[in-house]
């Protein structure tokens, strides 16, 4: 949209990738930039948020697909849903492990 190309759902797919990054990191992307600087960097320099080292590869793959500089290569939302469904077990297993490791008080059940 910033480049004045026709609006398609691929813009929303890019935004979904950003929201997924925000959910994973708990941060706002491009914090050191103004909105105009961030938009310029994304469009003209290919800037993308840094993916954390401990991010699940499957989630990293989904984000980077959604952020592809060529909107035609970005997945559709149907494809994103399929990718998330295929990764559900891995995501949920790792979330449970992370929650268990971070639990301040061990429970009687484990």
Fold topology:
Blueprint: H1 9-25, H2 35-45, H3 57-66, H4 77-102
Helix pairs in contact: 1-3, 3-4
Structure at a glance:
With 110 residues, the chain is mainly alpha-helical.
CATH class: Mainly Alpha
Largest sheet report: none
- Based on CA atoms alone, the radius of gyration comes out at 17 Å
Quickly count the domains. Answer: 1
**Distance between the terminal alpha carbons, to the nearest Å?**
50 Å
Q: Bin the helical content.
A: 55-70%
Uncertain regions: pLDDT < 50 for 5+ in a row?
Answer: none
What is the quaternary state of this protein?
single chain
CATH topology: Transferase(Phosphotransferase), domain 1
Domain Protein kinase: 1-92
InterPro entries: Kinase-like_dom_sf (IPR011009), Prot_kinase_dom (IPR000719), Ser-Thr/Tyr_kinase_cat_dom (IPR001245), Ser_Thr_protein_kinase (IPR050167)
Protein name: Protein kinase domain-containing protein
Organism: Solanum tuberosum
Task: Write structural notes for this entry.
With about 110 residues, the chain is mainly alpha-helical. It is built from four helices and no strands. The chain has one domain (about 10-100): Transferase(Phosphotransferase), domain 1, CATH 1.10.510.10. About 60% of the residues lie in helices and about 0% in strands. α3 (about 55-65) packs antiparallel against α4 (about 75-100). The radius of gyration is 17 Å and the shape is flat. The termini are far apart.
